[in-house]
Amino acid sequence: MICSVDRVQFDGNKLIGFEFYNIDKELKLKNYVEQKTTCLEQLSQFDEFYKIAYSLIKKDVLVITGDNRKTMTLSDFSSWFCKKNKSAGQNKRVYSKPLGIANPENAAGGDRYVQDLLSDLNNNEGYDFSVDDNGLSLATLALKDEHTLGFDFDLFSTKCGVVFEFLKRDSEYVNNLTAHPARYPKNKHKFVSLWKAAKKINPHNPSLYLINYSDNHCEDISVIKVIDFCVCFKTENENKMTLSDIGYKLESGRSELLHLLTRFQECCIQGQKCLDSKKKEIRNTDFWNAYYNFEKHKRPKIGVNYT
Fold first, then answer.
1. Is 3 helix (H, G, I), strand (E, B) or coil?
2. Mind listing the pLDDT tens digit for each residue in 190-226?
3. Which run of H or of E encompasses 63?
């Protein structure tokens, strides 16, 4: 199954997952949420997993973990959730922003591009993923002005533990192939969290794929497989991000991306085999050492040598 994971966070070395279900708006997704939650709960890599069913109309929240069920008022849930959130940031600097600030376009709901992909992946079921806000309404209300120390998986393969992060390109100075997280070190903490989660899920073969896309469904899409990532925030390393990766070129845009996700939904090996058939740019440690250490005009170019 390929699905989103509404919230993921660390508490020390523990990986904690959350699935939110809005009773007021998501009734048509009830069967899907139950199937999805069952798959996620069975993953041994999540040390704790919480299903949170809530009604903002009735102002109550049901928190379910394993066989334990607890009904809370919104106030009690806010206290509990803020405590959980803070446990992810003990003895750490705060890198994140209040919910809805980082991506105002999705502040009122989930990522529409991802929602449409989910609809296509589940086209036989007729689910409407546009009603799913990934728990943002409740989490924002609970955290108030606190910085969130959790993150999400835009898409996640429960079968093979692959994490997909979608990166919308808005800049006119790069295209989907030349766009890359390494250009934006201010977002490093987000990618460190994703990389650590991918390593927790697959310690021997962490699988994190970054997908550069735009509103133009026909434009080439870049799928970046992260091989190694710098998790250090010391001064000499704070601007270093990717240490090794492979960029794959999807020349048919969104339609080719949907086919790729379908292959990953069937089998991880089939998904990677599909990628290996595409034009690629291998960026090894020598490439990235030159990128980080050379002056800007001498750096190797990202995304211009797909073969």
1. strand
2. 999 999 999 999 999 999 999 999 999 999 999 999 9
3. strand 60-65
